[in-house]
């Protein structure tokens, strides 16, 4: 028997609602078919603020200590269409804290993502990919095409097109099917960085995600993955202890496959640009293939 301890996700018998949409500062417009458009307000780092005379992004600036100059007086907003609540297998139609954590990290570290080809795995509604498009050379959004999610990603990109500064593509990628299209294979080969947020929520999906990541990082060229997730704890009456079952299953999947990865836990004390509660059990992992590291 499991009893939820820390998770703030609102659940009914059949539906789940992300904690993001339960926060008081979110402004949403309800649509039909259990969907809405929510405003995600964020503060702009100085390099994103448009000059008064030009429509391009300002150059990245540093202070006298060679630290990133973050002048966040100007606010912007993303308009994201999403489902209000979903069944477990359709949670990608919502926005979760991991997506905002990863977006914050990208905005805080422009040199890591600038002019890179980036592929998001399980991109959901596309929020993190839209943020990455501020800096990337090219962005590729991927997800399984359930609930017309790929069409939803495209609508969100077009809704926020004024922020998109690079080419973007939307491709189907199913963690449970490693037979990829030729188009997807080509895009995987040219990708520099893979990103994923809150895609670990089910045993089968978690195993499929690790298997997919193994294939993505098996290329004989340097590639990096950034994985953001929230450890959701439950209390087990049988063992009288708290566990984070899906996070622990993720680690077990990596261990079982004996993967030759270098895993680094990134400190999450970087600036917060979006408005959300950055809870202490959030995790950001940087994963690289050790063989690739030697070749750098």
TrEMBL record:
Pfam families: Methyltransf_16. GO terms for cellular component: nucleus. One of its GO terms (molecular function) is protein methyltransferase activity. This is Methyltransferase-like protein 22.
């Amino acid at each position: 028997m499991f009893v939820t301890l820390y998770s703030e996700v609102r659940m009914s018998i059949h539906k789940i609602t992300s904690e993001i949409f339960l926060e008081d500062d979110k402004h949403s417009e309800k649509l039909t078919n259990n969907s809405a458009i929510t405003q995600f307000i964020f503060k702009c780092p100085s390099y994103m603020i448009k000059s008064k005379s030009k429509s391009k992004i300002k150059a990245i600036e540093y202070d006298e200590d060679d630290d990133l100059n973050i002048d966040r007086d100007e606010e912007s907003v993303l308009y994201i269409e999403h489902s209000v609540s979903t069944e477990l297998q359709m949670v990608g139609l919502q926005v979760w804290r991991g997506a905002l954590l990863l977006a914050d990290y990208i905005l805080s570290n422009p040199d890591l993502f600038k002019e890179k080809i980036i592929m998001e795995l399980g991109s959901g509604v596309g929020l993190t990919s839209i943020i990455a498009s501020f800096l990337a050379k090219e962005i590729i959004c991927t997800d399984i095409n359930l609930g017309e999610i790929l069409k939803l990603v495209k609508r969100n990109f077009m809704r926020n097109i004024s922020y998109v500064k690079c080419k973007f593509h939307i491709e189907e990628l199913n963690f449970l099917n490693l037979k990829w299209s030729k188009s997807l294979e080509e895009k995987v080969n040219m990708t520099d960085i893979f990103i994923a947020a809150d895609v670990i929520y089910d045993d089968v999906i978690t195993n499929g995600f690790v298997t997919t990541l193994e294939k993505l990082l098996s290329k004989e060229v340097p590639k990096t993955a950034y994985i953001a997730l929230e450890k959701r704890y439950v209390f087990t009456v049988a063992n009288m202890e708290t566990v984070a079952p899906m996070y622990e299953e993720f680690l077990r999947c990596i261990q079982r496959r004996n993967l030759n990865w270098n895993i680094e836990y990134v400190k999450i004390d970087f600036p917060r640009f979006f408005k959300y509660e950055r809870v202490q059990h959030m995790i950001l992992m940087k994963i690289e293939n050790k063989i690739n590291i030697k070749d750098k």
